[in-house]
Amino acid sequence: MLFDMDGTLFDSEPLWDVSLADLAEMLGGTLSSETRRRVIGGNLRDTTRIIHEDLGVEADVEESAAWLLERTRQLFALGVPWRPAAQAVVESVRRQGIATALVTSSHRALVTEVLAQLEPGLFDVVVCGDEVSRPKPDPEAYLTAAERLGVDPRNCVALEDSGRGIAAALAAGCVVVAVPEDGAALGDGHGAVVVPLEAVTVDRLMSLLADRVRPRLTL
Questions:
Q1: ω into 153 cis (within 30 of 0)
Q2: Which ranges of the chain does DSSP label H, i.e. alpha helix?
Q3: Which of 67, 108, 142, 175 is 20 to 30 A from 3 (CA-CA)?
Q4: What is the residue-averaged pLDDT of the chain?
Q5: Predicted confidence band at 218 (pLDDT cuts at 50, 70, 90)?
Q6: Beta pairing partners, 101
Q7: What is the pLDDT of residue 52?
Q8: What's the helix, strand, coil split of the chain in %, to 5?
Q9: Chain-centre distance of CA 91, in angstroms?
């Protein structure tokens, strides 16, 4: 099982709302709601570049990205809550002895803050955004996670909440379940199966893998 972090397992998007707004203010502007939507699921550097473009400012992308990373780390250190039902999903997968990986666009500095708040051993593998050369929507992160787990990505189910993440997992060959907070935001899931997080069970995930070889997908 391959899990995205921000917005999928953890309700960290409100914290990103704060740090992104703070970055925009630091740069002398105000973050638009449209730009906030555009950067969901993006990597740190691209997010910063988009904000610069939106504000029309000439600033060093690397300096702004470093500022945003540290501000977000400070917020994460105060506590990052699970999304409703997410902890139960991960723990039920672990009880079945299924290998797990956390596959995120967030940098290791942020992931470390989240992992410090969790029971040790929930994830066998962790792949962070600053540990791959090509971020989501490229499949590298998911391919790397599957390789480290020693499994074929086609035999993996990935849980995602953003268009970029879904594209990455699909390109890696995974069965993809979209668990957005607002299912309508993804429409038909961009090729993923949209399932409310509270309806995700191990049996249901395993049935999706089994259904891959059948002519129709039934939920």
A1: no
A2: 13-26, 33-38, 44-55, 61-77, 86-95, 108-115, 140-149, 163-172, 202-211
A3: 67
A4: 92
A5: very low
A6: 2, 125
A7: 97
A8: 50, 10, 40
A9: 18
